[in-house]
Specification:
The chain has 191 residues and is of the alpha+beta class. It contains 3 helices and 12 strands.
Length: 191
């Protein structure tokens, strides 16, 4: 009898866990084509990406929750939108921004209008990006060492950086730091 109870508990527990997205594997990833791969660095071509974004005022959490409420139905169509990866953060002239990538099936003309004025929808036009993958905690701005390595790689491949670095975070907050996939992206052009 005890074995049956334990078995029932385990089956129930496993079923519950399987419905929760515990890793990035359960999420759609922003579509891109890898052109060059050298260790942790890639040169990628991204298609147009529909993004929902907000300014990060005090903490990363405040921006995340505004965006989460948008995909949870706080939008003109009241529709829930699937979470995707990565979550982008960037800083431009001291203003920090967080962005979610909308699923590819949602075309630009069908993107629901945000109900919160602090949230905007934009289209990031297609472009070429150098990306450096690393593990660890989420920090605003990649470690200086990562940024220096990526800029050196860009220069060595006759590319020119264009714009500010973009952080890309792929994992849930409860993923152990050593297993996390983080990236630093810099848009580039041919010299």
């Amino acid at each position: 009898m005890i074995r049956l109870i334990i078995l029932c508990f385990l089956v129930t527990f496993m079923t519950a866990c399987s419905s929760i997205k515990l890793t990035r594997a359960g999420y759609e990833e922003a579509s891109h084509q890898v052109i060059i791969k050298e260790g942790p660095i890639e040169l990628r071509r991204y298609s147009n990406l529909n993004l929902v974004q907000t300014k990060m005022r005090d903490t990363e959490d405040s921006g995340f929750m505004r965006l989460f409420r948008y995909i949870d139905g706080n939008n003109s169509s009241k529709s829930k939108i699937a979470m995707t990866t990565p979550v982008f953060t960037s800083e431009n002239n001291g203003e920090r921004t967080m962005s979610f990538v909308l699923p590819a099936k949602i075309k630009k003309e069908n993107v629901p209008t945000p109900s919160n004025e602090a949230v905007q929808t934009i289209t990031r036009t297609s472009g070429l990006y150098a990306s450096h993958r690393y593990a660890g905690r989420r920090v605003e701005g990649a470690p200086i060492k990562i940024q220096k390595q990526l800029l050196k790689w860009i220069n060595n491949h006759d590319l020119q950086s264009k714009g500010d670095p973009i952080n890309a975070f792929y994992d849930t907050p409860w993923t152990p730091p050593f297993l996390r996939r983080n990236e630093l992206l810099i848009e580039v052009t041919q010299k």
